[in-house]
TrEMBL record:
Protein name: Protein kinase domain-containing protein
Record keywords: ATP-binding, Kinase, Membrane, Nucleotide-binding, Serine/threonine-protein kinase, Transferase, Transmembrane, Transmembrane helix
Gene3D superfamilies: Phosphorylase Kinase, domain 1 (3.30.200.20), Transferase(Phosphotransferase) domain 1 (1.10.510.10)
Lineage of origin: Eukaryota, Viridiplantae, Streptophyta, Embryophyta, Tracheophyta
Location of the Protein kinase domain: 101-252
GO molecular function: ATP binding; protein serine/threonine kinase activity
SMART domains according to UniProt: S_TKc
InterPro entries per the UniProt record, alphabetical: Kinase-like_dom_sf, Prot_kinase_dom, Ser-Thr/Tyr_kinase_cat_dom, Ser/Thr_kinase_AS
Transmembrane segments: 7-33
Tree of life domain: Eukaryota
Amino acid sequence: MVHKVDLVIIGVSAGLTVGVLIATLVFFGIWWYKRHKRHQLAPLTHKRSVDTSIILNKSFNNNVAVKLPTYPVKTSPILYNKASTSGLVKYSYKDIQYATNNFTTVLGKGSFGPVYKAVMPTGEIVAVKALASDSLQGEKEFQTEVSLLGRLHHRNLVNLVGYCVDKRQRMLIYEYMRNGSLASFLYNEEKLTLNWDKRLQIALDISHGIQYLHEGAVPPVIHRDLKSANILLDHFMRAKARFQISSILILL
């Protein structure tokens, strides 16, 4: 017959064994998770490390269109382009004037001003968004914000590829999206009707872009103005989310 003391010893031994096993599993689980997370964040931190003490301001939040002065258009190639400290290409006003054929290639007008189609000296087609010239934001502050936006790169985001700050003129240069906005397909009967497979693909594309902003960007970014008008389609009908300086929130 097993004595009560023996039963107690067996019970304590079994409990200790199970406890040690659970603690070991928890330890290795935490170690694996931290190691996996570190490998994911290391390259992003190296490429996109920013000064997290900087917060985007909202001084661009107005509806005043930009009235751009016109000058005689040069017929010679653009030679003024140079690399900026943000890693983006900085263009002069005359560069953009030449690329937009003296600002005659209007694609549309947004809340921040007109948008132009431009052909750069490399042959690349881009979209130039001219910002309101009466903004109170200083040049240094504008370039800081451009630097932050220039660090956000993903295949499902409309990427910033350059900018112009010349006297009172400030422009953001984005990759060109040939098929326009998702809204133009949803609310324009003259355009091609999107089948459900294409709609699902667009939804997946945008979810990947937003996931990158939330989990891949350093620091994380919240898109506060996600709507069909801010979802653009390229020539393959793949979707990318566009964002403006005042439509995102940096999480510190």
